UniProtKB/TrEMBL annotation:
InterPro entries: TPR-like_helical_dom_sf. It comes from Brassica carinata. This is Kinesin light chain.
């Protein structure tokens, strides 16, 4: 599903990419793979940003940020990169 999202994104079909990412997120939630869910949430935020849905993008980034903080710690580079993404919005 993530691969299909990448292909759709490359074709600038952001709506379909978003659909595939949401499905991938649901599959990872069912498998209890929280770090994967956080990574997918970042990608979902990117798709929302590409679609100019900034409020939903912020929500996805904040959700990923919360998950990464608890799993990787507050000083991890991934956490910092999410703060940068949020600042750009």
């Amino acid at each position: 599903m993530r691969l299909m999202a990448i292909i759709c994104e490359a074709k600038r079909n952001f709506e379909n990419a978003l659909e595939h990412l949401v499905l991938a997120s649901m599959a990872m939630i069912a498998s209890r793979k929280e770090s994967e869910v956080a990574s997918i949430d970042v990608s979902i935020g990117n798709m929302y940003m590409s679609l100019c849905r900034f409020d939903k993008s912020v929500f996805s980034y904040k959700h990923a940020l919360t998950m990464f903080k608890s799993s990787k710690g507050e000083t991890h580079p991934t956490v910092a990169s999410l703060f940068v993404r949020l600042a750009k919005l």
